[in-house]
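ok trying this again, last paste got cut off
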Amino acid sequence: MAANLTNTSSPVIAHEVDVGDLHYDSSVYCEVSACYRDQCTASREPVKRSSINRMAIQFEEDKLVIYEGQRPDKPLRGRLLVPPRLFCPANSRDTCHLSIVASLDTASQETKCLDGSTMQQMFRSPQTKRSLCSYPVQWGRDVEIEIEATVDMIKDGKKTSTVQIQLMIVVGSTTRLFDVARIPVEIRDAKSVGMCKSINDPHITTFDKR
């Protein structure tokens, strides 16, 4: 992003109206080069650049390990690196809406029950047990995504699911999605071991078909 500003006041301030459309994961910074007005070419100083701000949402974790029936020590936590309205088109910053969408993209790899239904190994939001959730975006407040692993009663070792996180920008009837992160989650068998007994017909098929 570049905006050429000429201002005789001090300090020189770049206002939001001076900034056009910005793209997700692009960089925003300022460059300043001072000179004397009547001898600018001959007196121009070297360019100085400000710190670089990324147009992005940054998540602290790049992977997680959780046990069945438990939650991780902390939720997936994301932080806005710039004010949220800057993600919106320049002419719609007062009317657009932003949210974070988290989903599982490994449903086809989930364990199948005997009746053919899917035994979901992990879900978003333990309160709703949904596999797809959206979270509001607010400046100065982290986005926290809670996850929990399901107890499937099968000793099937480690499994890996992926949490896909996207930024959703809605302007009127137009919706755009931007990929933010794909975080692998390793799911391990529950630490406790139980035993089932049956005092009747011994012809029983367990979940692991043994």
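PB: full thing came through this time. The chain has one helix and 16 strands.
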